[in-house]
Amino acid sequence: MDDPIVVGIDIGTTKVCTLVARLEGDRSFRILGVGNVPSQGIRKGTIIDISAASQAVARSVEKAQRTSGLEITSALVSLAGSHVSSVNSRGVAGISGRIIDQYDIDRALEAARAIAIPHAREIIHIIQRGFSIDEQDGIRQPIGMHGYRLEVEAHIITAAAATVANLRQCVEQAGVQVSQFVLNPLASGEVVLTETEQEMGVVVCDIGGGTTDLAIYINGDVWHTMVLAIGGNHITNDIAHGLRLPLTQAEEIKKQYGHAMQREIGEEDLFSIHPFGEEEATQVSRKVLAHIIEARVEEIFQLVMQEIKRSGYDGLLPAGMVLTGGTANLPGIRNLASEITGLPVRVAQPEDLVGLVDQLQSPAYSTSIGLLHWAMYTNSALPSPHGPYQKGGGPNWDTLKDFLKNLLP
Ligand SMILES: Nc1ncnc2c1ncn2[C@@H]1O[C@H](COP(=O)(O)OP(=O)(O)OP(=O)(O)O)[C@@H](O)[C@H]1O
Ligand SMILES: [Mg+2]
C-alpha cells in the first residue's frame, strides 16, 4: 500500500485531463483516478483567461480525486505553446584523469546551461544528448570511464517566463503544486515511441486541438523539439466556414464523417446538415467535407516538414513519423502525412494500460499518460530508458551536498 502515488495534469486546448496512478515496481503503474473535463480559457497551448482555465483544472482535479479517493497536492503538468523554444548547447567539465562520475556530468550540464537566456525566459528542460571524452565523440554513458575533459551536448528547452508563471498560478489556484513542467511532445514521445525507433531516428507528431507538438529522437536521445500553433480546431473552423455551420456542429461532423483524403471518398457518399439561414436540412457530399479537411491537414504537414528541415535532421529519420494526439483519429491522415512528408508514418496511442483505462486508449491521451511515465522515472532510482532528463531550476542539491562533504576534512 505504500507504493508512491503520482499525478499528471495535461492542460490541453480542448480538454484538461488529470490522472492519478500508483507506481507498481520501477516500470509500471496502475491508473486509480481520471478527471477528464472540457478545457476553458486556453488557446493554442497558452492561457487567455486565467480564472476560467483554473476552474477547468479544479474540476478535473476534483473529478480525479473523487474517482481515486485520494487527495491531490502536487502534479506534473504539461506545457506547450509557440512561446516554447529550444537550443542546443555544449558544456565542458575538467576531470584530470580520474574516473568520471555523476557529479562530473552535472557540472558539464551546468556549464551547458550557462548560455545567454533572455531574462524573460525560463529553462524547462536540459536534456543530455551525448558525450565526448577527450575529443572522442559518440560516448553514451561516460560514468566509470577515464578522461581529462568531459564534454556534454545538451538540448535546452526554454519557455516564456510569464506564460509559465500563469500556468503555475492557474494550477495553484486549483490547490495543486506543480512539481515539474513537461513539454507536451516529450510526454507523448515516452508513450508512443519504441526504443528502436528512438535509436534509429524518429519524429513524434502530436496534433491536438490547438497545437502540433514535435520532438525528434536520434540515437536514443531528444535532439530537437518544437511546438506549432496549429491543430484540429483549425480544421473545425474551416468546416464551420465552408459549410456555414455552428462550431459545435462542425466538430461533430468532422468526427463522424471526416476524412483527410478526398480521393478516397465516393461522390455518392452524402450526409445531412443544418446550415445557418436554411430552414431545412441539406445534403452534403463527404467528398466536399474531405476536400476542406485535406487542404488544412496538408498545410499542417507542410509546416511540420518545414520545421523538420529547419532542424537539419530531416535526413536522419529512417523510422519516420509517429502520429498521435486527438487529430490522429482522423481517417486517412496517415496516408496523407506519408505522401506530404515522404516519411514512413504510423498512428499510435497508449497501450497496455492497467486500472481505470476505459477512455484512455486513444491518441488524445498520449500526453496525459506520458506525464505518468515521467513521474515514474523521476520517482525511481532507475534512469529513464532514454537518457536522464533534468528539469530547470538550479543545481542538483544532492550531488552538491556530496561534493561539499568531500571538501570537508
Ligand atoms: N475522430 C476524429 N476525427 C478528427 N478529429 C478528431 C477526432 N477525434 C478527436 N479529434 C480532434 O482532436 C482534437 C483534440 O485532440 P487532443 O485531445 O489531443 O487535444 P488537446 O490535448 O486538448 O489540445 P492541445 O494539445 O492542442 O493543446 C480536437 O480538435 C478534435 O476535434
Ligand atoms: Mg494535447
Task: Give an overview in words.
The chain is α+β, with helices and mostly antiparallel strands. It has eleven helices and 19 strands. The protein has helices at 50-68, 102-113, 161-173, 184-192, 195-200, 232-243, 247-257, 286-311, 333-341, 366-379, 397-407; strands at 5-11, 15-24, 28-38, 42-43, 46-47, 74-79, 85-94, 121-133, 136-139, 149-160, 177-183, 202-207, 212-218, 221-228, 270-273, 282-285, 321-324, 345-347, 389-391. It has a five-stranded mixed beta sheet, with helices on both faces. Strands 7, 8, 9, 10 and 19 form a five-stranded antiparallel beta sheet that branches. A hairpin with an 8-residue loop joins β15 (270-273) and β16 (282-285). Mean pLDDT is 90; it is low at 382-409. Residues 12-15, 39, 45, 80, 184, 208-211, 231-233, 236, 251, 254-255, 258, 325-327, 329-330, 364 line the site of adenosine-5'-triphosphate. The site of magnesium ion (MG) has 5 residues, from loops.
For the termini, the CA-CA separation is 43 Å
Please, what is the oligomeric state? single chain
Number of helices: 11
CATH superfamily of one domain, by name, is: ATPase, nucleotide binding domain
CATH class of one domain: Alpha Beta
Mean pLDDT: 90
- Unreliable stretches (pLDDT < 50, length at least 5) are 382-409
Rg, Cα atoms, Å: 23 Å
The coarse overall form would be globular
- The fold-level CATH name of one domain is Nucleotidyltransferase, domain 5
What is the string of SSEs from the N terminus onward? EEEEEHEEHEEEHEHHEEEHHEEHEHEHEH
The biggest beta sheet reads: 5 strands, mixed
Topology, number of strands: 19
